[in-house]
């Protein structure tokens, strides 16, 4: 049974989104996703300052025998990425919701509007069942 | 437990040598008097300093730590790990083949040229193509060569076609070769039967379609029954049909890509024609084409005059050029030639018939224990899904590792990508019923172990020279150089 | 490193901490990344790598230098045996050099005569460089003796 946190929002592609402060939304992949991928060995993240649209591939996540795209669930500008993952990608496996976060996007419109398009924790549970 | 194996560098004792070369019987030239200062090495390369016996024992031991086709059953799907007859090796070692150089005058290598010429024609006859180049070094190189031929063909007609279509079950080399050859790949989903979805194909083709790349039978081991419809859709759109010959062991002497409508074919001689794989030798990926593509073939090809003299045919103005130094992996071509002569047309047909029979026998015996996602009649290989075992925490990778404890090379796993927990088995024709049964019984035993003692499977292997290796750390913090 | 093509072997450890080797960084490769792979390379050519590895182990630190020295010394000895007018270049060379034939002679005929005498003659550079018609490339390795070199130059002169 995978860990699904009630305080955040989800995409069909198994990303989570967490509004932090102001217009900023933090993004990572879910516990279900890291479990499916297995041991993650490398994470490629977007450049800070790049503008992204929800659904865009903004990076990739490599495990030993697979590679999967990282999609952004929201639109805006990348303001921060988790550089620690370059040297310690295993954090995505051990702590996908906290230490394993991937990027922060400053949304152009309202946070509520961006989040409103995503899945609630309950809806996401039905996706992973 | 066997002790850790020392690296050859760790055996070094300064001053030891394993070689002897004749004394230099001419005046010695001081390198410093010839080579410009700054280009001379300050100190020698860090190479091992060991005795000859150390070298022999070291590499012999390394070879014993490998599982090869001469050690046991090797059902690696899509790789056609058949037994490689030893006569191939004997012939390849004839001094007349092993000790010649491609720059020799043609009159001094007529035997080698005749062999190449005959092999070109044999492979053309087997595949239903009009002309063959033997240059490509392996399958993916053949794919790239074929795609460059396709590009040259379209360009010669003033057409710019940029897209190559592949099914989602295709080998990874197909889209990768398309990219390397400068094309854009379009991947189309397979239908519920695991075959090319004709509607998806119709929707994908257009005036920018350069080619469709296909294996037949496909990577699920299924024969693409509507291949003639596929060919018509592609040809009507002005595209060409590329045959990935990785699965040719299913069809030799039974049907030919050329008759199915394919325009370009590559064969993996290290699969179908029993030449060694990987550590045993380089590959070879000859490419055959229909007549409209012949002018573009890499040069030279081997020609024969009316007087029976063989020669390098370099007068090919539309050729895409050389794709390999000299003439491909010649020693491998000698082995393939030997194999074809050994079996003859009837024998090669029996090879494919038995390869298909063996695969079907195994699939039917394993079906009660592993899910068969595409039931029915398979060709030379078939896929199983290990997803039932996930309930016990056992994954396909664990089953593969556990097989090592029983002396088997595992099947291909997690390919094709469109089958969950995929196990892809290709027995080949060279295995006896006893070998197949013993392997099947082992697979059944492992499936039972997964239910009753999953940890036993999850922690496998136990009997190999090293136990399960930490691949994650190897990829996270790569150690790629000897640190000694 | 995550962009280079082809197979890469890496060192790692097994469950017991024992050294072992794996194919690593495979997510670059065609069987995983497909059209986005860094190359389409699949079949390996490891026998050739093995041969080279064994050879370097046999020759070792001293042997590789000894072979190189002999190549150079014997090639320079051979070059010195040819008539001085036949030297095409004065630049430094290692173990092969270019010989220019007299106007009255041509390479196919010289090489045909040499073949009858049991030698495969020099490479006809005119095949690749039209401006070097009538020039042949001669290579000498550590395996040749002074006697063989002398005999070859004598046959070459006789074949002009």
Automatic annotation (TrEMBL), chain A:
CDD domains: GCS_H. It holds the Pfam family GCV_H. The modification N6-lipoyllysine is found at residue 65. Keywords: Lipoyl. Gene3D superfamilies: 2.40.50.100. The keyword GTP-binding does not apply. Residues 24-106 form the Lipoyl-binding domain. Its cofactor is (R)-lipoate. Binds 1 lipoyl cofactor covalently. The glycine cleavage system catalyzes the degradation of glycine. The H protein shuttles the methylamine group of glycine from the P protein to the T protein. Is also involved in protein lipoylation via its role as an octanoyl/lipoyl carrier protein intermediate. Belongs to the GcvH family. HAMAP family: GcvH (MF_00272). The glycine cleavage system is composed of four proteins: P, T, L and H. This is Glycine cleavage system H protein. It comes from Cohnella kolymensis.
UniProtKB/TrEMBL annotation, chain B:
The keyword Oxidoreductase applies. GO terms for molecular function: glycine dehydrogenase (decarboxylating) activity. InterPro entries: Aminotrans_V_dom (IPR000192), GcvPB (IPR023012), GDC-P_C (IPR049316), GDC_P (IPR020581), PyrdxlP-dep_Trfase (IPR015424), PyrdxlP-dep_Trfase_major (IPR015421), PyrdxlP-dep_Trfase_small (IPR015422). Residues 352-451 form the Glycine dehydrogenase C-terminal domain. Residues 151-278 form the Aminotransferase class V domain. The keyword Oxidoreductase applies. Its EC number is 1.4.4.2. The modification N6-(pyridoxal phosphate)lysine is found at residue 271. Its cofactor is pyridoxal 5'-phosphate. It is an enzyme of class 1 (oxidoreductase). Gene3D superfamilies: 6.20.440.10, Aspartate Aminotransferase, domain 1 (3.90.1150.10), Type I PLP-dependent aspartate aminotransferase-like (Major domain) (3.40.640.10). Keywords: Oxidoreductase, Pyridoxal phosphate. The glycine cleavage system is composed of four proteins: P, T, L and H. In this organism, the P 'protein' is a heterodimer of two subunits. The glycine cleavage system catalyzes the degradation of glycine. The P protein binds the alpha-amino group of glycine through its pyridoxal phosphate cofactor; CO(2) is released and the remaining methylamine moiety is then transferred to the lipoamide cofactor of the H protein. Belongs to the GcvP family. C-terminal subunit subfamily. This is Probable glycine dehydrogenase (decarboxylating) subunit 2. It comes from Cohnella kolymensis. The gene is gcvPB.
